[in-house]
Write a structure and sequence with these properties.
Order of helices and strands: HHHEEEEHEEEH
Strand content: 25-35%
Oligomer: single chain
Largest sheet: 6 strands, antiparallel, barrel
Length: 162
């Protein structure tokens, strides 16, 4: 099983309390799909990702693109021309569910040979991976693709000097 709809899990949990944890324990016995894909050398993502470690500002938006509240600081994990992921402290599944399909504006700065440049993009939260004792990961798909050169520049910036 790769996927279980939330409403089915809720129904099962009503009939068999504790089944969600049992399913989690059971699923850890098997190799993760991502690990299998990586071993096979397949590339499922449409755009090359670059690991980054820097801060960004995230501002929740309504469906018309207007800010809902003040921006907050996050730690970025990776970026591609199609999207970005970042860490965010979440403790409940309900909080993670509320983030899904919401729109945000994300801003960060990178540097290349010509100086500092700002990324200022809107995107939709397409996945939230809850980590109960650590920062959860939030995955955003940009409304418009970033130029590939930006990703190349960020990749160069992320490499250790040598």
């Amino acid at each position: 099983m790769f996927f279980l709809e939330k409403n089915i899990l809720t129904e099962w949990e009503d009939k068999q309390p504790g089944i969600e944890n049992k399913l989690k324990v059971f699923s850890r016995l098997f190799e993760k799909v991502g690990d299998l894909i990586q071993k096979s050398g397949l590339q499922l993502r449409g755009h090359k990702r670059v690991k980054i470690s820097r801060n960004a500002l995230v501002q929740p938006l309504d469906n018309s693109g207007k800010p809902l509240r003040s921006p907050y600081k996050v730690s970025l994990f990776d970026i591609s021309s199609g999207g970005i992921s970042y860490g965010f402290k979440l403790n409940k599944k309900e909080d993670a569910s509320q983030l899904l399909d919401s729109w945000i504006n994300i801003q960060t700065v990178y540097q290349n040979q010509t100086g500092k440049h700002k990324i200022n993009s809107n995107g939709k939260i397409v996945a939230v991976h809850l980590q109960p004792f650590d920062e959860s990961s939030v995955h955003v798909q940009f409304e418009e693709l970033l130029a590939e050169q930006i990703i190349v520049d960020i990749g160069r910036e992320a490499l250790p000097a040598g």
